[in-house]
Amino acid sequence: MSVYARGAGDHQAERVQPEPGSEEEARLQALADDPASGWRRLDDPEPAEESEPSRPAKSAAKGAWVEWAVSQGADRAEAEKATKDDLIAAYGAESGGGEGDDPNGGGE
């Protein structure tokens, strides 16, 4: 549930917790979006971290390789038609990822 507050600094002159999806919540969100209003959303969700997907292990299922290929710019329909070996050949170059390729743990 969202909580909205009006005030300056740490001082809160008003604090409201509207019903989710209500008109009141929409009104308060519009006020919070306007820095001049003095309203802010206290529980602003943090933006999701965009993380680079990791290359699947060679032993991973073909579906994981299809998803990886698509994340690397491949056309989904083409990736689904390709064999797993073709996907590994085209998108399997290691760039620091590749966990699980060596069942012995990568002995040096």
Biggest sheet overview? 3 strands, antiparallel
DSSP helix fraction: 25-40%
The coarse overall form would be: rod-shaped
Low-confidence stretches: 96-108
Protein structure class: alpha+beta
- How big is the Rg? 24 Å
Number of helices: 4
Strand residues, percent: 5-15%
Element string (H = helix, E = strand): EEHEHHH
Average the pLDDT over all residues and give the rounded result.
Answer: 79
- Measured between the Cα atoms of the first and last residue, the distance is 51 Å
Structure summary, number of beta strands:
3
Record the strand order, biggest sheet.
Answer: 2-1-3
Give the secondary structure arrangement, pairings included.
Elements: E1 4-8, E2 11-16, H1 23-33, E3 39-41, H2 62-71, H3 76-81, H4 84-91
Antiparallel strand pairs: 1-2, 1-3
Helix pairs in contact: 2-4
Task: Provide structural commentary.
By secondary structure, the protein is an alpha+beta fold. Helix content is 32%, strand content 13%. It has a three-stranded antiparallel sheet. Strand 1 (4-8) and strand 2 (11-16) form a beta hairpin. The protein is rod-shaped and about 65 Å long. The chain starts with a strand and ends in a 17-residue tail after the last helix. Mean pLDDT is 79; it is low at 96-108.
Briefly, what is this?
With 108 residues, the chain is an alpha+beta fold. The chain contains four helices and three strands; from the N terminus they run ββαβααα.
List its salient traits:
three-stranded antiparallel β-sheet, alpha+beta, single chain, rod-shaped, 32% helix, disordered C terminus, 4 helices, 108 residues
